[in-house]
Amino acid sequence: AQKITQTQPGMFVQEKEAVTLDCTYDTSDPSYGLFWYKQPSSGEMIFLIYQGSYDQQNATEGRYSLNFQKARKSANLVISASQLGDSAMYFCAMRGSLGNEKLTFGTGTRLTIIP
Amino acid sequence: DGGITQSPKYLFRKEGQNVTLSCEQNLNHDAMYWYRQDPGQGLRLIYYSQIVNDFQKGDIAEGYSVSREKKESFPLTVTSAQKNPTAFYLCASSVAAVYQETQYFGPGTRLLVL
Q1: Chain B residues within 8 A of A103 when measuring between CB atoms
Q2: Which of A108, A115, B28, B104 ranks highest by number of CB atoms within 10 Å?
Q3: Cβ contact (<8 Å) for B104 and A47?
Q4: 3-class SS at A18?
């Protein structure tokens, strides 16, 4: 079975500071993908970044980077130079292989950027 | 523009009534999914379809039904057997149902019981 754990229910960060959102995962699949999504108050799930289990380098997409530590089974999202528009819920998710291709979500972290 | 559309944005259901949520995509994706989100929770998989005319149950399929007659469309019916249907429903699609492929989501439908 797959499991995603996000231990930070809420975070408050000053505008322009960097922020790290924690995510740990558990799986026995040899191949898997890790995803981060942003959910603003409108409700739509917006894809941010993807990391494959065999990728040698940490993924980056603009101000988003994924700090992937395979041995620790962690996949933390780092947002650099935070903006007011970054205030939202953030979900970590994973897809496995060998019959575990469904997307399993964590419970999310509510990020609030303070002006 | 390519994307996923869901309708309606809000839906009200009376006791004992079946309602159908629409999901359409023009991304040419083979795989489509339905998720349910309850307040303060992550998403849970209801049903998914890897190809036309085929679909599988997810973690919480009881009280729901789907069809996949066209590649672009994956409607979800919430039946009267679903005793607690009030939730936010999200449809998603991906190129294929494999771990490397990203799922993209529609804007969602909020279902409320009268």
Answers
A1: 33, 43, 45, 92, 103
A2: A108
A3: yes
A4: coil
B60 Cβ under 8 Å from any chain A Cβ: no
B residues 88-107 lying closer than 8 A (beta carbon) to A: 88, 90, 92, 97-107
d(CA B63, CA B46): 10
Structure tokens at B110: 């909020």
Residues 6+ apart with CB under 8 A from B41: A107, A108
Q: How confident is the prediction along chain A (115 residues), in pLDDT tens digits per residue? A: 889 999 999 999 999 999 999 999 999 888 999 999 999 999 999 999 999 999 989 999 999 999 999 999 999 999 999 999 999 999 999 998 877 678 899 999 999 999 9
DSSP state of A85: G
Q: Enumerate the residues of chain A whose CB falls inside 8 A of the CB of residue B104.
A: 47
Tell me how far apart the alpha carbons of residues B83 and B26 are, in angstroms, rounded to a whole number. 33
Would you mind telling me the total number of residues written for chain B in this entry?
Answer: 114
